[in-house]
Amino acid sequence: MSISTNAEGKYKLLALSISTPNKPIDLSLYAVKCDIYESILSPSAIIEITISDSTGLLTAFNFVEECLCISYTTNNESTPVHYEFKILEVNPVRTLPSDKGVVFVMTGISEEILKAKTLKNIPLIRKKIESEKIVKAMLELTETKKELYFEKTKGLHTFSITNTTPFDAIDQVRKGAISEKYKGSAFVFFENKNGYHFKSIEKLVEEGLPNIGDKFFIHSTLAGSNVQGSKWRNIIAFKVIQNGNQNVGLAVGGYNNSIRRYNIETGELEFYEKNANQVDFLTMNEGSKSSSNEQQDKRNKDEGKIILSLYNGDQENNEYAEKQNLLPYYMTNFLSVIVHMTVYGDSSLTVGDMIACKIPEHTGLTLGDDRAYTDNDPITSGNYLVCKAHHVLTFGEFPQYYQGLEIIKDGIGGNSPKTRIV
């Protein structure tokens, strides 16, 4: 089972097994490919393992809700990736040529998700409490032993949660949560290899900027350029999905919106109506812009979205109306550039991390092999947040590990130094 880790795309498989009524089965003897999906929009990682079986493994056991364990690493000095899943289904099944066996796919999700589905009667009424404490209480109902990473919220809110599951309740709390420090309050709740996270996107950025470490990726114009021994990693494929945020801003009210907060106790009406150019958010790339000043001024002259927000001072003391005013502006900034890229697998990289990418400008001109520096494309180069990760591990005689990433950065331009290609 030992695999060399001295080259890009190589990994070391430490464990791949599934529980049965008698004893665990080593699935590395049968596995063809493993796909693990992570997203900052998902409360559970998901696994799909393709199995090729000619020994009757499929019919010998009922694998549904058995425990599947996988551990691997690309660096013996770092903490390995370790996941445990509950099998949700075994499907589809295809017969191998000449009826010499079958190929099937096992799909697994986190144990907490399955347990939470049975916990619909969780009547919970808490008066004036912080949002993150409710999230913690919901996770405790699932009896999770995973690490929990929370951001401090501000304001107190009365929660009345009935006839729902813990993870549905967490999603309700997430939508209303307000950051103690950051203006956007764009909270996400997700699972990655480290545990569960309840944080705003700005908090992920703040934590990620100083911890980029060796997570630098380069799309080199020199075919087969050697990055071994350096901090850089090759980008195998790179595709810009969204370049510019004009449509996003128009859709979510990211240029000009206002909130009318109505106090149902006093009958008072309060106004929250900052426009986009009056707010500064924490950014991944210093000096970057999500839209031009001219465009902002033009949009701000238009009448924007107006929202009526009801408020009961006996039930809450947070400023949810302010979040409603500012969140569309933050999401418009955040969704400036969306990129899909494929890289060689790195077990230290997961969703919620930040990476730096250097992408050269493609001018169509031949500049010569003696050019030591390449100008970075100001649109696509810069720091990104990893929002989705698809981990692909193949088995067999020549095992490989790849990652498909969806990465997002909040603006164009900014401080993007020149990169020496080695």
Tell me about this structure:
- This protein is α+β, with helices and mostly antiparallel strands and 422 residues long.
- The chain has eight helices and 23 strands.
- It has helices spanning 57-60, 111-116, 131-141, 166-176, 201-208, 246-252, 293-301, 320-334; strands spanning 12-18, 25-26, 31-39, 46-53, 67-73, 81-95, 102-109, 124-129, 148-150, 157-161, 187-192, 195-200, 216-218, 232-243, 257-263, 269-272, 305-311, 337-344, 354-358, 373-374, 382-394, 401-409, 419-420.
- The strands form five sheets. Strands 13-14-18-22-21-19 form a six-stranded mixed barrel. Strands 9-12-11 form a three-stranded mixed beta sheet.
- Helix 3 packs antiparallel against helix 4 (166-176) and helix 6 packs antiparallel against helix 8.
- Mean pLDDT is 81; it is low at 1-6, 220-229, 369-373 and 417-422.
Taken as a percent bin, the fraction of beta residues is 35-45%
Helix content: 10-25%
Strand order of the largest sheet: 13-14-18-22-21-19
Measured on Cα atoms, how large is the radius of gyration?
24 Å
For the residues shown, what is the average pLDDT? 81
Find the structural class using helix and strand composition.
alpha+beta
Q: So how many helices?
A: 8
Give the termini distance in whole angstroms.
33 Å
Oligomer description: single chain
Q: How many distinct beta strands?
A: 23
Largest sheet: 6 strands, mixed, barrel
Low-confidence stretches: 1-6, 220-229, 369-373, 417-422
